Amino acid sequence: MKIVVLVKHVPDAASDRSFAADFTVDRAAVDGRISELDEYAVEQALQVVEKSGEGEITYLTMGPADAGDALRKALSMGGDAGVHVVDDGLHGSDALATSMVLAEALKKLEWDLVVCGMSSTDAWMSVVPAMLAERLGVPGLTLAGELTVDGTTVTIRRDGDDASTTIVGSLPALVSVTDQTGEARYPSFKGIMAAKKKPVTTYTLADLGIDAAAVGLGGAWSAVESATKRPPRAAGVVVTDEGDGGVKLAEFLATGKFI
Amino acid sequence: MTEILVLVDHVDGAVRKPTLELLTIARRLGEPSAVFLGSGVANATETLGRYGAAKVYVVDAPEIDGFLVAPKAEALAAVAAQASPGAILVTAHSEGKEIAARVAVRLGSGIITDAVDVDADGVASQSVFAGSFLVTAKVTHGTPVIAVKPNAAAPEEAPAAAAVENVTVAFSDAAKGAAITAVAPRAKSGRPELTEAAIVVSGGRGVGSTEGFAVIEALADSLGAAVGASRAATDAGWYPHAFQVGQTGKTVSPQLYIANGISGAIQHRAGMQTSKTIVAVNKDAEAPIFELADYGVVGDLFNVVPQLTDEVARRKA
Questions:
Q1: What is the interface pTM, i.e. ipTM, of the complex?
Q2: Which of residues 17-46 of B touch A (CB under 8 A)?
Q3: C-alpha–C-alpha distance, residues B50 and B23, integer Å
C-alpha cells in the first residue's frame, strides 16, 4: 500500500504570531514547526503500514524552503520519502489554490491513501482535506477519531455533537484524522539520523503544469482588508476566597444581570 | 433583490439557532432563501419563514443522510447553479465548513470560514491567531461562500413567504464514496448547545475527576448554562471530548463564561477569549486565566462553586 501524508510547516502556535505588510502570515518573525495536528496523521499512517506489514509512506508539503523541516521531522518518525512543492509564486496562496497545487502534486504520485491532519494550527480553516477529496474525486473520510484499513476498505469513526458515526469507503481514498486518534510517537535518535538520508524531491509550479497567475496572492479568491491586534482585555477584579467567594461572585453576576 | 442562500442546519426539521442567525445576516446582503437538505421540511418552513426566508429550496434524497458531506455539497451547489445567488452562508461547524469547501471548489468561488460577523458589503470579520487579531476579509471571485460561527448575530424575526421549491439532484458516483454505515446517537444532556449557549460553565484540571464535574453541572443547571471542559479534563477522560472548549474543540463566545480550575493555556484561551464577560475560579493566583477575567476568585472551586450555586438558587427563588 502506498500512502501520502500531507504536512504543513507553521509558525509555532505558542509564539507571538503576526501579519506581514501584505497581510500574509509573518513566517519569518517566529520559529516554525510541523503543524502539531499533522503529527497525528503521520502516526496513523505509520500504524497502518505497521499493521498491514507492508507499505510505503511519502510526505507531501507545500511552502517556502523552511517547510522542508516539516518533511524531515515527519521522516524522523518513520516513512520513506518527501515531496516539497516550493516556488516563490506560491506566496499568499489561499486554501483553494493550496488544494489545487496539492491535488496536482498528488496526481504525479502513486498512492492508495492520502492522510491529512484535522486542521493546520495557523489558519485553522479545516477545509483543505474536503477540497482535495472534491478535486481528486475520491471518497473523503474526514475527521476520523479512529481509523482502520483492511485490504481495500477504509473505516473511520467520526465523533459529532449529536452522534458518533461509522463511515466506510474503498481505496483510493482520503482521510483526515483528529487528535483523538492517539498520541504521535517521538522520533528516535536512529530515526533522526536515518531521516537525513531519505530522498526529498522538489516540484516547482512549472513541474506541476500550473500557471503562476492561478496561485499566490494575485490568484487568491479572497482578500484580507485589515488585520488589527485585539487590545488586551481590561484588567478585572480578583478577590481571594475567605469563605464568601461564592457569594461575592453571585453579587458580581447579579450586577451584570446574569441572575 | 439579490438572493442569498442559507444552508439550514437541522435535526429532522428542527431548525438550529445558528441558521436563524444566518437568515438575519443574509438580510443585510439581500433576500434570504433557505436550502433544506434531507427530510422533515414540513417541521421547518414556519420557522424559516418567520426569520425571513422568502423561498425554501428542498433536496430530499436518501443520499443526503446516507453518505458523508459530499452529497450535501453537490445538492447545495446544484441549488446555487439554479438560483445564481449573491452569496452562500453556512454554519461554521465541522460539517458546514466541509460543505462550504466543496461548494467553493465546485462553483469556482472564494471562501471565508469562521466569520464572526458579515456586513452589508460582504466583508467578513474573523478572529485569528488564538483570538489575538481581528481580520476583515472579502471574497473577490465568484459567489462568496462564507461559513459563519454561531452567535455572530442575534436572530431577528422578519416574516416572509417560505415558498417551498423542490429540487432534484443527480448525485455523482464520487459523492457516494464515503458511506455512513452506523450512527450511535449521544445521550442528550438537556442543557443548551455549547456553541449556542448564552452562559458556559467550564471545568479543567482543578476539577480532578469525573465525579468532580457534578459541581460544575450543578452550577450550569442553576444558570441554565452549557457545560464545557478544558483539554486537560477531556484528555483525562473526566468529561466527553465533545464538550472540549479550545483550539482542537469548540470555540465559544457566550455572554458569560465561568472557568473553574482552568489555568488558561493558549489552547483553551483560543476557544473562549472572545466571551463577553469572563469569570475565573482557581486556586493558583498566578494562573494566566486571571489575566482575562473580568472577575476572579482565588480559592478552592469545591468551596466557591457550590456556594455560588446555592446563592444563585436563593436569589432566583
A1: 0.95
A2: none
A3: 10
